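haha ok so turns out i had the wrong file open the whole time. this is the CORRECT one, sorry everyone. sequence first:
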Amino acid sequence: MMKIRPSRINGKLHDNWFRLQPRQWKERVKGEIRIQMLYRSVQARTLTAADFELLKVVGKGSFGKVLQVKKKDTGRIYAMKVLVKKDIVERQEIAHTLSERNVLIQATSPFLVGLKFSFQTPEKLYLVLDYMNGGELFYHLQKETAFSEERAKFYTCELVLALEHLHKYNIVYRDLKPENILLDSTGHIALTDFGLCKENVSFNDTTNTFCGTAEYLAPEVLTGQGYGKAVDWWSLGILFFEMTTGLPPFYSENINLMYKQILHNQLLFPPGFSMPAQQLVRGLLHRDPRSRLGGGPADAAEIRQQPFFHDVEWDKLLKKQVTPPFKPQVESETDTSNFDPAFTDALPVDSLPRSSAPLSQTIQEEFRGFTYVEESALSAAGTSLA
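then structure:
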């Protein structure tokens, strides 16, 4: 690898040789690479859907769809989340949607998907995000049924750092599950979909909204007693169990029965589940959030000190200097082979909403301020490499 800080002198051509550096700290690397750079200043402007070429569908849900797109002027590949305003209004999700945009702007952790641009039309909202061509963790888990304990441990460590970053900004994530975890081309994780995040929740604060995915709901969410950041650590415990066994620990097809099991059933481990891993899961799945691992004021620091993670070099992990245990097969920047064909086989169109009745000006005002352009994305747009 190599790192470059491009010059900001408009129109000046740079022609340099750069020494290659190791990507992982133990690697021995030799060689140099010659790169020509020309920086051109690009004036900030509001983007539209016409600035992007639609390539593939990579995700779908009740919110709308996610498309793989290419920005026409730079050729950069992104993921574009398209939300229909009318659906958001009908589901009373305006606050959640604006919160998602705000959280994305603060998502400066290397393990959170970043927002590059956002814009809107009278009918739709557009979020243009980093594209992760390693696909959803859910897709890989489905294909392999379960991961080794070491592989699950690696993903869990990176998720601890991702959630710690959100909690530092008093954001509760509330929807941790394999579908919301993406892999990049080298096998590192990136948390995505911040639509259920709750902002401004400090350590002693609680919120009461019943939301999330059934299998991962913490007991305090089900009992309606108010909950805080500790719900994310409960979900992490459920996720680790699912990654290593193939199913969440209290799973049932009958949702009411599953809720009863979450509240009352004993935690049972299959043969081969190591004692340190059991200790971690028991700590994360403590039903009392105040006694839960990570539930105190130390938050993630308490989890990082758990014996199961005794050999983890957290500083190197944060810098992505630890080699992932699994590397997705990726042929190019536009590769979609790690996404479900049920999505990628669909026609990539930005279709019009089913109802043509326009939203009132009062409701449109609630989406004011949604537009955003990340500075580094603009800088990238103005740097040509040869």
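Residues 49-132+335-373 form a domain with the Phosphorylase Kinase; domain 1 fold (CATH 3.30.200.20).
again sry for the mixup
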